[in-house]
What we know:
The structure holds two protein chains of two kinds. Chain A is α/β, with parallel strands linked by helices. Chain A has a single domain, classed as Glutaconate Coenzyme A-transferase (3-Layer(aba) Sandwich). Chain A is 23% helix and 23% strand. In chain A, the strands form four sheets. Chain A has an eight-stranded mixed beta sheet with strand order 3-2-4-9-11-12-13-14, sandwiched between helices. Chain A has a three-stranded antiparallel beta sheet with strand order 1-15-16. In chain A, 52% of the residues are buried. The mean pLDDT of chain A is 94. Chain B is α/β, with parallel strands linked by helices. In chain B, strands 2, 3, 4, 5, 9, 10, 11, 12 and 13 form a nine-stranded mixed beta sheet that branches. Chain B starts with 11 loop residues before the first strand and ends in a 9-residue tail after the last helix. The mean pLDDT of chain B is 96. Classes of the chains: A alpha/beta, B alpha/beta. At the A-B interface, helix 3, helix 4 and helix 5 of A face helix 5, helix 6, strand 8, helix 8 and helix 10 of B.
Amino acid sequence: MTRAEAFSEREVAMCNVARMVENGRTYWAAGGGTPLYSILLGKKLYAPEAQYVTEDGVIAPEPMLPYEPMMTMLAARATYRALAWGTMNTAGIYSQLGYMDYGVLNTLQVDKHGNINSTFLGEWGAGGRRMHGPGGADTIAACCWRTILITDQSKRKFVEKVDFISSPGFLDGSEGARERAGLPRNTGPWRVVTPWGMYDYQDRRLRLIARVPWVTVDEILAECEYLPLVAPEVKVLEAPTEEEVHLLRTELDVRGQTTDAAGGWIIWDGEQYVRGSAE
Amino acid sequence: MTTASEPATIEVLASGTAPYHKIDPDGFREWVRDHKERALVSKLMTEKEAVEKFVADGDYITYECNYLTRGPNSLLHEIMRQQKKNLWIAGKFTYVDVGMLVGAGCASKVDTGFFLCTPAVRQALDAGKLEVYEYSNVIMTMRLEAGAQGIPFIPVRSFGGTDGFDHSGAKLITDPYTGQATVIIPALNPDVAIIHVQQADRFGNARLFGTGISDVPAALASRKVIVSAEEIIDTEEIRSNPGLTKIPYWCVDAVVEAPFAGYPGTVPGYYASDPAVVMEVFASVLRGAVEPYLEKWVFSVKSHQEMLEKNVGVAKLLDMRKRETIRGGYRA
């Protein structure tokens, strides 16, 4: 596989999630957008026998591509050639029963224990900034066996404590906190993926385990309000391949090519990858 | 073989603080006894008649899907046109709809899983004209499921530990069977459900094709149910394939024949969306300019049909139908 010459930060995160997708496992993709495109990319290239559901209860669809940017999950093209059509409660119930191995989410804010905020910045009800709410993410984070979170690497996103827990991570980080809150045992956050690196959890605390070649550990830590643990050996992730970015651009993340064109880009300068400036 | 262990007592460990719509399973049964028509009588009426008759100021209202996909948009528009007030909205899996209802001055409370928090919503919140209570999408549809079963609450395996829990009607209890901490959520029996389906007969037997959110629980759980349908089909057709009937007639109080009721969104299997107007509504609602959108698409016309005639036209509707190339699974 050939390394891609240039790609966006958004594409880097999706490729790194796609490479984790496994055959014979089930995925609950939150909404559309990067979680769903990552799973589809993984299915197309690495794990054709991975299966997914979305919040409308569709089971294992083969969506008609290219994926239409403005489509919601219930659209005919999104639920095309599924094995079964369901409802929001069937999706919820499959996850309650333990059928969902992985949940894939994106979010605005995550804290050291993997709690997710998509409801409120500032103090609830006291002039803070209200956002859209958890949608299906709360159930995904509560009931899938493992949760993969996609977000941007930025100080505003990696905080000590989220302003509002919309969807549960390890809550206060104490052992058994999720069970004491009524959540199924042995579930919870598993990975956080950003365009710059990857995290797991050690004793329910966020830990940096991998980075992309063009960013140093110190640069990542400088973009964390909460300083995560750092694994003894921080793995270096491979750059996206031509094949991956081609699929994303032509079939899956068609809209992202426009909406994120002004974001961060990484370019091969003949010797190494460098971060291009948007200016 | 397992045997029952010592039963534990039920202890309430934590309670959310939000008000919730009244729970009254026996009252609901009596409503059904006194108001739901058992005979096969035609319930066909116009959207105007249906909303006049079955939506009252102050009602708790749920609607299925959302403005972009199989939304009951002709009925939502009519509710705004008739300027219903102080509605309590089940804002689960929505996009622009809550912002539109708030912008139109119809809503004063929202139970939410997901909605676009638009400038109109923020202004209403800041002015104290709107209250929002926190749930998630699945918690809202499970509340409807409890309402649909005629029971007062339902245990769930999610929602615990969140800050949403504190601003909801949920409780954390010890389950008397396992002794484990378990979240329970209040049943939801809305005053009104509005649901757009692909096919129904004049009595209200309704067929739904494709995935959905909570159409069937909403129809069972609600005191008044208005169904709009792309096509009114003959009851003989319903009888020829009874397995396709998802909502039975006795739940339904009004049936509105409403082709292209989902405009500008898609109705899967019938027509694709109108991307230009979908962008128009997003831009209007998100940029705090919902009034011009409502004026053009809702208030300046008398009915959904007049809106289709004046603002859309046959050529565009035919094109939307043509662009929905997938038909398999969406017809009997």
